[in-house]
Amino acid sequence: MASPVNAIGFLLSILSCALFGNWLPFLSVVLFVFAPLPNSIFGRYTTNDVLEDAVSNVADIGRFLTSLILVSAFALPLMLLHVGTIEFFAAVMSISGGLLIYITMMTYSWLFTRERIEY
């Protein structure tokens, strides 16, 4: 189910560039693709211990970097639209395609990293 959603996301992203003859919206897709990397790299330093009160600063840095990249990925097409570099529908297609790509990547990572309950 997630693979066609990912394909639709990439299709929207490529069409947002190809239909309007401007490849700058593709930069936001690159940001959406690299957005989960800080969480996956720095997320290994978290603990699931209930009794431990200390918060992992390294995991917080990963969450901060991920949110920074995501905000930049949303803001880049909007900024390009405001400046007049891209069309309105190119910005909408770029944001929606990148969002579909990011959601698909997060769904895959959630499905393959969750704890398996064995009885």
From TrEMBL:
Its main location: membrane. The chain crosses the membrane at residues 7-35, 61-81, 88-111. The keyword Membrane applies. It comes from the Eukaryota. GO terms for biological process: late endosome to vacuole transport via multivesicular body sorting pathway. Pfam families: Vps55. It is a multi-pass membrane protein. InterPro entries: Vps55/LEPROT (IPR007262). Belongs to the OB-RGRP/VPS55 family. PANTHER family: LEPTIN RECEPTOR-RELATED (PTHR12050), RH04491P (PTHR12050:SF0). This is Vacuolar protein sorting 55. It comes from Furculomyces boomerangus. The lineage of its organism: Eukaryota, Fungi, Fungi incertae sedis, Zoopagomycota, Kickxellomycotina.
